[in-house]
Design a protein that fits this description.
With about 170 residues, the chain is an alpha+beta fold. It is about 30% helix and about 35% strand. The chain is globular, with a radius of gyration of 16 Å.
Length: about 170
């Protein structure tokens, strides 16, 4: 599918071979704040998830894709979640797993590809994301792709014995 291919990376469906990669991400406590995770996931649960990951977005209301290099190395994940067909919108989440792969343009290219796919193939009218006020890298990423800050949820998430504000960003199809 040409839509999901960029210059540096491409987006692909989850495969059973992604078990170890996803298990490492889901159990990395340093990203639990971003993913809203509170407990570890077993390989058994992730294997079950992978067995059902090929279901249609219209059925399961989410789509998770692997951000892959052209030498077939998984770099990260990008998701559409809370897919709302009636209101033609979905939330977006993105994670580049290893620091060595961050700030190289992979996230930006993956987000561009997902935006194009969402608006052209899925017919969505808008995308949104929720970003912690101190996640400057993600704020910059989404702003650079045209997302606008539309709200601030005060003391929204309880992290490390304190509450943090969370921004709501939105991109409406032109």
């Amino acid at each position: 599918m040409i839509t999901l291919k960029g210059q540096k990376i491409y987006l692909r469906a989850l495969e059973p071979e992604d078990l170890e990669f996803i298990h490492a991400i889901e159990n990395d406590e340093s990203v639990w704040e971003i993913s809203k995770t509170q407990t570890p996931y077993s390989k058994f649960l992730i294997k079950q998830y992978l067995e059902h990951a090929q279901k249609d977005i219209f059925e399961v209301k989410q789509l998770r894709l692997v951000i892959s290099s052209y030498n077939e190395m998984p770099i990260g994940l990008i998701d559409l979640f809370d897919f709302d067909f009636k209101n033609s919108r979905a939330g977006v989440g993105i994670l580049i797993k290893d620091e060595i792969n961050r700030e190289k343009g992979y996230g930006s290219e993956a987000l561009q590809l997902l935006i194009k796919y969402s608006f052209t193939h899925l017919g969505l009218h808008q995308l949104y994301c929720n970003i912690s006020e101190d996640n400057e890298t993600s704020i910059k990423l989404f702003k650079n792709q045209g997302f606008k800050e539309v709200g601030l949820k005060k003391e929204w998430n309880y992290i490390n014995d304190s509450f943090k504000n969370e921004y709501l960003f939105q991109l409406i199809k032109k």
